[in-house]
Amino acid sequence: MKFFSSRLIAWQRTHGRHGLPWQGADAYRVWLSEIMLQQTQVATVIPYFQRFVISFPNIDALAAATEEQVLAHWSGLGYYARGRNLHKAAQIIAEKYHGEFPREFAQILELPGIGRSTAAAICALAYHQHRAILDGNVKRVLARYCGVEGWTGEKRVEEKLWQQAEALLPLHDVAIYTQALMDMGATVCVRSKPKCVLCPAQADCIALQTERTAELPTPRPRKTVPERYATFLLLMHGNDILLEKRPGSGIWGGLWCPPQFDDEEASRDWFVRNRMDASEGERLETFTHTFTHFKLHITPLKIQLARKPLHAAQPGSVWLDVEEALQAAIPMPVRTVLQELTRRMG
User: Most exposed: 89, 184, 187, 267, by fewest CB within 10 Å?
Assistant: First the structure.
């Protein structure tokens, strides 16, 4: 098994990724990159990471920011609970550890939004500690190399993979090996059409030797993806749009969105109840936003108001110029709608 790790380490030094902005950085930047990279591709993360560390260069700066400021920088990355947990964890570190990222695995694991693999990655990459990781890409690499069958999200299968991850861990160069595993999963041992000819471990990869690279890891059992529908009420007065702050938990928690309803009839009832006066209206094209567990079909209704209603003065709602709203903490579907509005306004 030591040959697996030694070959990956040698491969990483020559063929792995070396220009990522968080490589060789302190624990804060490693932590930030690990959280951002959950469910998100490297190419997408890089510009977000760079903007984030300019605004929040250290843990104390992040802890001192408001949740609104943090989520504005997270806007478009999705999975917003990650941003909220990042902010909460920074506040804990600032208070409990005087702004120094903890070094102990158990202390890191206690922080909001950090699981076993993320804590291990921080320990290995930032502190060169002897810790095994098992993120989604690494599960795929090990399932193929070790010939582990079954869906990797199943507890029994995941435990087998953890055992393999621990057994394959080298005694030295753990940070390089950890980066090699990540690089292998991202660039060589990819989900479809893996580049086995480039793999340093091809000689004894069970999936390759038994011609099962297309079968392993075993796909997640298929489930019908639920479909939901929503209507966004785009209340406009000139170039200003009305946005409401969503509750702190749940989908898009703490973000700014137009008033949202289950259907057009509910949006019309709300409009009438609030005694709003429309000068013109238009139904924009319905589009679909896909979440992990369901699809949301969104129909935006653009309503130009003759005057701003009193509703605008209510807590939790605000009128913003559309260009200004694009800089606020908004989810990706709202950004899509606002960008369409700016295009129409020319």
Answer: 187
Characterise 252 by phi-psi region: left (phi > 0), alpha (psi -120 to 50), beta (else). left
| pLDDT recorded at residue 310 | 62
What phi, psi does 123 have (nearest 5°)? Answer: -60, -40
Choice among 34, 100, 282, 324 that is catalytic: 34
CB 99 within 8 A of CB 15: no
| pLDDT tens figures, 109-123 | 999 999 999 999 999
pLDDT in tens, 28-58: 999 999 999 999 999 999 999 999 999 999 9
Q: Report the Cα–Cα distance between both ends of the chain, in Å, rounded.
A: 61
Selected from 3.90.79.10, 3.40.50.620, 3.30.450.40, 3.90.226.10, the CATH number assigned to the domain covering 227-345 reads 3.90.79.10
How much is the pLDDT for 276?
Answer: 87
- Homologous superfamily of the 2-209 domain (CATH): Hypothetical protein; domain 2 (1.10.340.30)
Is 54 strand, coil or helix?
A: helix
Triad 123, 125, 127: Cα angle to 5°? 50
pLDDT at 211: 97
Sign, Cα dihedral of 236, 241, 246, 250: positive
Question: Quick one: which H or E segment has residue 122?
Answer: helix 116-127
Question: Which residue reads 């086995």 in tokens?
Answer: 196
CA dihedral 253, 281, 271, 248 (to 10 degrees): 0
Give the containing element (helix H, strand E) for 4: helix 2-15
Share the mean pLDDT of the chain. Answer: 94
Amino acid present at 146 = C
pLDDT at 205 over 70: yes
Is 34 known to be catalytic?
Answer: yes
